[in-house]
């Protein structure tokens, strides 16, 4: 039975018999690897060792009565992602939540309960639906993609810093969505990126809250600029003007202003860093795999995808979408996810105790050799067979990414615009490292050769 067949069933069932919890590493194991766990270059090795020694589902005592599970099994992780009633994000104020709030405040991404998340989501879901994204933000994305790539075109053959280009693009798009006609997105977002590059690598350190202050301060400054820009504008366009309606006394009430800032910060974070990082990996993989690049370019030049907004660009079976999916499988930017067990359950013979913490490891599950043939290879054609798409790169259930359509639009328009203009070739060999995100260990640089 393959993974696709198994996942069609319901692997979560109520606890009826006493099945032992899966074994796993002891506290001594983690103490001996404490340096590696706080080293962004070595942390993946620790989790791979856990999987190699104890299997793809293991558990460990945490504290006197707590338990943490490590899940790198594709089918079990898929069931947990789908088990919204049994596995929740933050049932109470946890250390994980405290770290997130230290970075980005208490907005949508760092809410305490699923009910709070639903309240935030309700106010923003319509703005980021697929139809609304295409109607309201499509022209914004195209305008900035064209402007940045036309500038690159004018430079002729050159090595381009894709990390900076992608960050500038995501920063411009999100700033225009929040506060149109801003004049300060590019370099502010690049500064935030540099601070973030250092800060997120410290995420697993005990004193992360202190280390994250510079990043949070930079985000607050950028959010404040955007809020003041929106307030001074004559137009009612932009999401911040709509958010101000929800906080009518934000200018006089410090608590209301703080809520507005938190919401703005969360949208900035959600709208630029993960998308820009994914664009790094997509561009790098196309530069390495020139055969796939050429086939995709032929489709782009045929007009199949238009400018990246054509319905074919959203068709999961097209090469464009398969390339994006394969990049997200190989380099799952959200490389770990945390859930908490609300009721004891058994999944595929593994017992999960109520109250336990579950660390999902999609960066391992998405390279599982029993699920994917030649799992470390970049092969967009694998999805034409029975191989499944990567595990929920945009999340799933009540906390699914509300900006998914915007991220997809940005990725599609960038890839289409780039391949229309340039031939890509390698200029560096980045490796993946782990902090809050799975990011390259250096800026991704690609040689761009304009097409004649």
TrEMBL record:
It comes from the Bacteria. Its cofactor is heme. Keywords: Heme, Iron, Metal-binding, Monooxygenase, Oxidoreductase. Heme binds at residue 401. GO terms for molecular function: heme binding; iron ion binding; monooxygenase activity; oxidoreductase activity, acting on paired donors, with incorporation or reduction of molecular oxygen. Coiled coil: none annotated. InterPro entries: Cyt_P450, Cyt_P450_CS, Cyt_P450_E_grp-I, Cyt_P450_sf, Cytochrome_P450_monoxygenase. Pfam families: p450. PANTHER family: CYTOCHROME P450, CYTOCHROME P450 12A4, MITOCHONDRIAL-RELATED. Belongs to the cytochrome P450 family. This is Cytochrome P450. It comes from Mesorhizobium helmanticense.
